[in-house]
Amino acid sequence: ARSKRQLHNCTDHNSVFTMNGDHDLNVDLDHFGEQYNEKCGVFGVYNVQQAAHTTYYGMVGLQHRGQEGAGLVSVAQSKTPGGQGEFKLHRGHGLVTDVFKPEDMEALGGIHAIGHTRYSTAGGKNQIEGFQPFCVKYRMGNIALAHNGNLSNAPELRSFFENQGVLTQSTVDSELFLHLISHSKRQSQVDQIFDAMTQAEGAFSVIIITDKFMCAVRDPNGFRPLCIGRLKGRGVDGSDGYCVSSETCSLDLCKAEYVRDVEPGEMIIIDRRTVETGTFASLKLPAKFGTSQCIFEYVYFARPDSRVF
């Protein structure tokens, strides 16, 4: 009798729990879907011929991490040394194979690209403005971002920017990274990105691409996986290309060689120096707690053939 009374008390007008005439409990799953889903896939390539096509196959390999929508940003090399590249964005609802048609892939082109398969974390499921990657231009040039995870301090950050009069285009927490970067007082883009990441809390595996480099960042707790791959001889003039992915299974599909994981709290820079020397510049985010990787990557998120953590 006590359990029945407790369930009955949950059936008020504002509750996500309701009870039908047969005394069966119904739960409004849509209420929880936006808050507790953290299963997205991110993939990026640097210095790779037909970068958009490689990223397409990388996203297909990560399709299990998100089926609501997909997006891709490609970057064509600047025609002038030190100039800004041409960033092209395409995104839509549905599976990767539904969103990207042959004509879309031909239009994207480029030698760098990042992609995202969406399984909503925070933000409207049907708002195309909230689909990643995000691609903007600010005082330091072009920047595109793809994020897997959930920011625990998103409400505080959003409130701060709203009070500053900042305009936002979505309710997705991932967009806040761009505002943190653009409002940073640091002088270089690398330092601005690092500064932004130190202010974010929660789970984040992020790939960012700019006019001059691509970087991969993993939160200090290491909640979500992120790995680096090498595409031998598939870059400009036969040089090596590089890729970053949520899981190693997408590296296999792209025929990339696994190099290593991005460590918890690590920010990796992939640029022309990486192409020439095969080495990565690495920065370390400050850690408040120890590593605490998500067990759901083993039992729910990741594919069985992926190498996780």
Quick summary:
This protein has 11 helices and 15 strands. By secondary structure, it is an alpha+beta fold. Strand 1 (17-19) and strand 2 form a beta hairpin.
Key terms for this structure?
309 residues, seven-stranded antiparallel beta sheet, six-stranded antiparallel beta sheet, 15 strands
What does this 3D model show about the protein?
The chain is α+β, with helices and mostly antiparallel strands. It has helices at residues 2-8, 29-36, 51-61, 96-99, 102-108, 154-163, 175-182, 189-199, 248-253, 272-277, 296-301; strands at 17-19, 25-27, 41-46, 69-76, 86-93, 112-118, 134-138, 141-151, 202-210, 214-218, 227-231, 241-245, 257-261, 266-270, 281-284. The chain starts with a helix and ends in an 8-residue tail after the last helix. Residues 1-18 and 27-37 have low confidence and may be disordered.
